[in-house]
Design goal:
about 35% helix, binds thiamine diphosphate, binds iron/sulfur cluster, binds magnesium ion
């Protein structure tokens, strides 16, 4: 099948946007026969009515309501098909596209309801670990220790990143996966697998964000690869009731290789090294992989 690319956007996205990188890769494979239902966030800037860079359709919703919007689109398509007004070959895939703020917080109840109803949709969450579009305030996905516009204390964000993967898995949907644009083959394999399924399907793409994470846009891929090699972003999938890690970093790099490349963690290294915070983050990564070692 020929690959389908996003058209040139000309829209004001940041250079080196890891979310856009993942979306490009997803779209290459997912194709044009789709309706994107996009909640308010950075990707909203891709579309400037009546134009979008997508070859398919695009619908904008409020932050909380993308899964509800997806239900309406799915129902409309099903009614058109059932009443013979749309030939089966014209059917479209319904894709929710949101950031982590919508996915982990403001839109979570609408998502939970959609999974519960068994809605046939794909949910692509680009996770830049904050409310990027409004200046990187902390979100439910912000990691421990990160500086955000609303976490300016000496140790950064005091909370922990919400386990969105586990929250979805607890609903027993059809498919859940974590991906990153810097590992395109892993991403492509998961999108391919997910395409053949029906029902609620989630892809969470960790999205290195030069603007919100404070690094040079040229380093997006390198930082993405470090997220995998240090083990802080496990690549995994849930299908048929089972979680499998798809790329296991057998010799994990120390977590500070990832942290020290990003300005949002600079306060952990200077003016004094915050050993307790760095050790704490490392310990949580180690504990994760110890508990996953039976996979
Ligand atoms: C209910 C509501 N609160 C706040 C906003 C303002 N707002 C627009 S985009 C955005 C950030 C969304 O964060 P996220 O979902 O992570 O997407 P990102 O901006 O990081 O792409 C916010 C807070 C809004 N649109 N609706
Ligand atoms: S703020 Fe971050 S996520 Fe948003 S467009 Fe810029 S790089 Fe991408
Ligand atoms: Mg975000």
């Amino acid at each position: 099948m020929p690959s389908v690319h996003l058209l040139g956007t000309g829209t004001p996205m940041c250079a080196g946007c890891g979310g856009l990188e993942a979306l490009h890769e997803f779209y290459d494979q997912f194709g044009a026969k789709s309706v994107f239902v996009n909640a308010a966030g950075c990707m909203t800037l891709l579309a400037a009515y009546p134009f979008t860079p997508f070859r398919g359709s695009w619908l904008y919703t409020a932050m909380a309501s993308a899964p509800a919007g997806a239900q309406g689109v799915r129902d409309a398509l099903d009614i058109l098909a059932a009443t013979g007004r749309m030939p089966p070959e014209d059917d479209l895939d319904v894709v929710v596209l949101t950031g982590d703020g919508a996915a982990c917080g403001i839109g979570l109840s609408a998502t939970s309801g959609a999974i519960e109803r068994g809605l046939d949709f794909v949910y692509l969450c680009y996770d830049n670990e904050g409310y990027g579009n409004t200046g990187q305030q902390y979100s439910g996905a912000t990691p421990h220790g990160a500086r955000t516009a609303t976490s300016l204390g000496p140790h950064g964000f005091p909370g922990e990143k919400k386990p969105l993967f586990d929250i979805w898995v607890a609903h027993r949907p059809v498919y859940v996966a974590t991906v990153i644009g810097a590992e395109p083959l892993d991403l492509a394999r998961k999108v391919e697998r997910m395409k053949g399924l029906k029902g609620p399907r989630l892809i969470i793409a960790l999205s290195p964000c030069p603007t919100g994470w404070d690094f040079d846009p040229r380093e997006t891929v390198q930082i993405g690869q470090l997220a995998v090699k240090t083990g802080i972003w496990p690549l995994k999938e849930y299908v048929d009731g089972k979680v499998t890690h798809t790329k296991v970093p057998r010799e994990r790099l120390p977590i500070e290789e990832y942290l020290k490349r990003q300005g949002r963690f600079a306060h952990l290294f200077a003016p004094q090294r915050d050993d307790a915070s760095i050790r704490g983050i490392q310990a949580r990564v180690d504990a994760y992989w110890e508990s996953a070692s039976g996979d």
